[in-house]
Amino acid sequence: MKTKITKICCIGAGYVGGPTMAVIAKKCPHIQVTVVDLNTERIAAWNDKDVANIPIYEPGLSAIVEEARGRNLFFSTDVEKAIEEAQIIFISVNTPTKTYGKGKGKAADLKYIELCARQIAKISKDDKIVVEKSTLPVRTAEAIKSILDNTGNGVQFQILSNPEFLAEGTAVTDLLHPDRILIGGETTPEGQEAIQALVDVYSNWVPEEKILTTNVWSSELSKLTANAFLAQRISSINALSELCEKTGADVNEVAKAIGMDSRIGPKFLKASVGFGGSCFQKDILNLVYIAKSYGLDEVADYWEQVIIMNDYQKKRFSTKITQTLYNTVADKKITFFGWAFKKDTNDTRESAAIYVADDLIAEQAKIAVYDPKVSREKILADLDYLKTRSQEENTASLVSYENPYEACQESHAIAVLTEWDEFTTYDWQKIFDSMLKPAFVFDGRNILNKTDLESIGFIYQAIGS
Ligand code: UDX
Ligand code: UDX
Ligand code: ADP
């Protein structure tokens, strides 16, 4: 299959597909890149004349879309046409954790992937390279291949695994300057040719020594493992944060001290209210499920503990707020600074804020949220998704504000849930003056200055000190 790559299609215009294809289009002006999605609203937003309205907020992304859109970057709902024309098809649809049946709550739900595979098989009239971009459980490529080979029109398919390592909030930089590109494919000559075709796309801007090629299964498992290791570091430092609170050690000092060991390194050691995002929990649950399915109970239990610790850290934060506010938050206004799962994104999937709010509302608190990028509809939808109580009750218990100062008026406490930079620049005296006394700050991200806040009069509590 020595076709020259002139057209790429990506199925799924989400947090992964959108930014990744925008960067490929920017760096490969000779390749036409079409991103398709079933969601017409989402495609309309990607095509919005005002590039500020694209559906995903990522620093630097709108400029790239503006540069490439209409030149060699297209967003469309015509899935069939895009598949038919492309030589390489990326599958970048969502793979949420199953909410039903076998593996419920743990295994990845592959129904969207299977639908894509069937659609590709039906439409393709010439040989294609199909690339898994979504995080998928190990051996998904095998399943895709079986569907393609058995339902297709007799054309040849090569399946590659090309996991995405971008982090939200820094997606554009991560895509422009990746630590590595990982491409897994079959060891046959045809597999190697397909790998080379994808290597040739990336080598338009990524140095060859950073492009790693492996067999399919190593590539798939590497993605899960990378996320499991990253999440494990956070659960490890968070586990230590409670010990620090009990003993008088300071987790920031401990993190700095251990991070200077070059074998450990300084990154991903920030204690927090708990990790969120669409990947960490899902990928670890996935790893746990795979291990269990091979009967490897010790392996499964080892990794599951990372999730158990993270759930505990979120619970510990909400409990600390209630206990500190004299064991009752009933009818008390508590202000959340931040709802997104991390700064510089409007994504809220698995954000700790959702679970902390849910706990506090169960204690009848009134939650006031300010997040610079997350809409009120999204916040309430996140809460409703938990199905803890009725929509009406959620709507009555949570209000969101466009202005941080208004969100704090007559509030008993502020809880920092996301590390948005702007929170550190506020007029904290003004905030203090508008709150009920004593005024509490629970800093779930350790971003505020304890000494400054205490000198204003706040009672300040951080994580791990
Ligand atoms: C360790 C710490 O590294 C050191 O900083 C501390 O002061 C004392 O404890 P040590 O036990 O001497 O040092 O050796 P180390 O190199 O850390 O190895 C410990 C064990 O881990 C060895 O059995 C080694 O074979 C094993 N190991 C290490 C692995 O199995 N895999 C690895 O990747 C690294
Ligand atoms: C992650 C991986 O980093 C990325 O490589 C993969 O492709 C997708 O999953 P993402 O979830 O976008 O990316 O963000 P990340 O920066 O990893 O943060 C995940 C969560 O961990 C956030 O809630 C963040 O606030 C939290 N975190 C991160 C900490 O609590 N402490 C840290 O030190 C680092
Ligand atoms: P991710 O973070 O993995 O990118 P998102 O949920 O942001 O996940 O994006 C996945 C996108 O895939 C969604 O916009 C969804 O509408 C789209 N999608 C899911 N299944 C299909 C399909 N069969 N064809 C086209 N698009 C799909």
Automatic annotation (TrEMBL):
Keywords: NAD, Oxidoreductase
Pfam families: UDPG_MGDP_dh, UDPG_MGDP_dh_C, UDPG_MGDP_dh_N
InterPro entries tied to this protein: 6-PGluconate_DH-like_C_sf (IPR008927), NAD(P)-bd_dom_sf (IPR036291), UDP-Glc/GDP-Man (IPR017476), UDP-Glc/GDP-Man_DH_C (IPR014027), UDP-Glc/GDP-Man_DH_C_sf (IPR036220), UDP-Glc/GDP-Man_DH_dimer (IPR014026), UDP-Glc/GDP-Man_DH_N (IPR001732), UDPglc_DH_euk (IPR028356)
SUPFAM superfamilies referenced in this protein's UniProt entry, alphabetically: 6-phosphogluconate dehydrogenase C-terminal domain-like, NAD(P)-binding Rossmann-fold domains, UDP-glucose/GDP-mannose dehydrogenase C-terminal domain
Domain UDP-glucose/GDP-mannose dehydrogenase C-terminal: 335-450
EC number of the protein: 1.1.1.22
Pathway: Nucleotide-sugar biosynthesis; UDP-alpha-D-glucuronate biosynthesis; UDP-alpha-D-glucuronate from UDP-alpha-D-glucose: step 1/1
Reaction it catalyzes: UDP-alpha-D-glucose + 2 NAD(+) + H2O = UDP-alpha-D-glucuronate + 2 NADH + 3 H(+)
Keyword NAD in record: yes
SMART domains per record: UDPG_MGDP_dh_C (SM00984)
Keyword Cell wall biogenesis/degradation appears in the UniProt entry: no
Top-rank lineage group of the source organism: Bacteria
UniProt cross-references to PANTHER family, sorted A to Z: UDP-GLUCOSE 6-DEHYDROGENASE, UDP-GLUCOSE DEHYDROGENASE/UDP-MANNAC DEHYDROGENASE
Stated family: Belongs to the UDP-glucose/GDP-mannose dehydrogenase family.
Name this polypeptide is given: UDP-glucose 6-dehydrogenase
